[in-house]
Amino acid sequence: MKYFTRMKIRRVYEWSGRARSFNRRLKTHDYDSFAISVEGLSKIIINTGQHILIEGYDEDNPYVAKVTRLYGDENGQQMKAVVQWFMRVSELPVNKLKLLGREPHPQEIFYYECRNCDNEVNVESILRPVKVKHLDSNDPFPDSSDKDTLYVKLSWDSKVFGVVNSTVMESPAEPAPASSPPSCLKPSLPISPSCSQSAATPRGPSRRVLPTPDHAIMQKASLGEVDHHFLTVSLLFLQISPGTPKTPRHATPSIPIRSLQTQQPANILEEARARLHVSSVPESLPCREQEFQDIYSFVESKIIDNTGGCMYISGVPGTGKTATVHEVIRCLQHAADMDEIPSFHFIEINGMKMTDPHQAYVQILQKLTGQKATPDHAAVLLEKRFSNLAPRKETIVMLVDELDLLWTRKQNVMYNLFDWPTRRHARLVVLTIANTMDLPERIMINRVASRLGLTRMSFQPYSFKQLQEIIMSRLNKLKAFEEDALQLVSRKVAALSGDARRCLDICRRATEICEHSAADPSSTGLVGMSHVMEALNEMFSSAYITAIRCASTQEQLFLRAAIAEFRRLGLEEATFQQVFVQHQALCRIEGLRPIGVSEGLAVCQRLGACRLLLLEPSHLGVLQHIRLNVSQDDIFYALKAD
Fold first, then answer.
1. If you compute the radius of gyration of the chain from its CA atoms, what whole number of angstroms results?
2. Is the pLDDT of residue 180 over 60?
3. What are phi and psi of 70, to 5 degrees?
4. Which of 21, 79, 267, 581 could bridge 72 with an S-S bond, Cβ 3.0-4.6 Å?
5. Beta pairing partners, 108
6. Total-model pTM
7. In angstroms, rounded to a whole number, what is the distance separating the alpha carbons of residues 273 and 515?
């Protein structure tokens, strides 16, 4: 069914009947109804207490609400409506739908209980009335042939679903201010007994005792809305965890039990190797306490104030940027679960995982709404979503990792990511992570970059003492390394790049070498200097490093020129023409004769044949794109050794 918006049909709005009361302080009148006139059609009268459709970013799925109050001035210049919002399935966070315990009905909507959303709209945004029918939780949904009726069974409060009391749907609306919305809802599972009456008790003049969580579970089970396995897991959760938070993170069916138990570390070295793995989640993030606090305070303030903002986080690889942001989000989600801050919706995209920068629009829309669309259509829908006044359910916190890779010729993807949080009604907080400090200025005019008002955070490379502290924190008092060995690997990596991931990899390799040399009578069983030196030589003595050391002077200069150009662009690739300009400049600095274009292309082709560079087809000539096939650390190490 297609709903037409004001962009296609001209509507005229006016009050119907006389004003019911007058507010002297605000100089506004309260009304019982208003009329919508459309040329060639009969006049539509909408009264308080009616359900309506409100214009939104998606023309096919307008917002659904119930009018609770109408007010404005006598001449119709200001016409406002206070509404009670309902949520469509497409508006719910995709990761929360599993809490429903069943497939939602296509015409199902949910009574939305929210303390922070905007429930005042312009009357001119109202499209037409709509029929909304309340169903008891044990009633089946009617035949879907009636496409004009929407059905309500449950409520949604940004955390759990609840059963809607019929009095909410059937009683006439009260023309009260939006600050005191009706809240006659039963709680849904699971809520702990210790907090059910304090955190989920309905607000307002009429308060009543809520049913206990086990009663709510059994009630849902009797209605056929919870499968047997879910019921068993939920009741077990209630029996063994009387004091757990009311929004458990694992109230879903358990994964299949392993037929064999995971193998436990056989010795200290195996245990150390497991703890030093890059994917292992540490108990804390040492050496980034200040950065953690700054990011946490920034996001927390935006969530509490219901505003938007953007933070640009930069730093070389392996300096803890992504890990710190993930820890911030984990702590904020815990605070939201404990009702210390309003709930928020977190989504994450990564430029490394996209074949085209415009796929960012597709991923963002799908993670927000579950809706699939082409990049162009997704961009239009997101632009409407973040620009228009709407019942913002909760603040959206979006992490954009590897921002450098979302570069496009017109820079529209990056610009939108920076611009959307500045919109008045967006309630969007964007955290961008990149390797280049001044990427916004490089891709956009300085005037535009300054207008966006980015908050910046720079992660400096780790010093050798910080790297040593990170390793010791990971080991957590496990005595597997000699102190001198830890100092050596920390100093070596800090001198090159300060990359913590490279440091962890070298330490893990050193434990393997130590384990294989355990038969040596002189061995102490700990990772020593000799093991670390062997690991360092292996790590920095690959065939690629040998090839770099054996390359000609011009080839080594070309590799240096490629790194310099990548850093200038803030990207991981460039054209031969761009790198060649850097190469000529380096030749002059080194006192060498600059080579010609044809000789430069030959140098580039030789590096491509050695697989030190990845090249586009050679027929493109100076316009072919170039990427490194080795890490910059390896190039620095090989050239420093020379």
1. 31
2. no
3. -130, 130
4. 79
5. 151
6. 0.61
7. 11
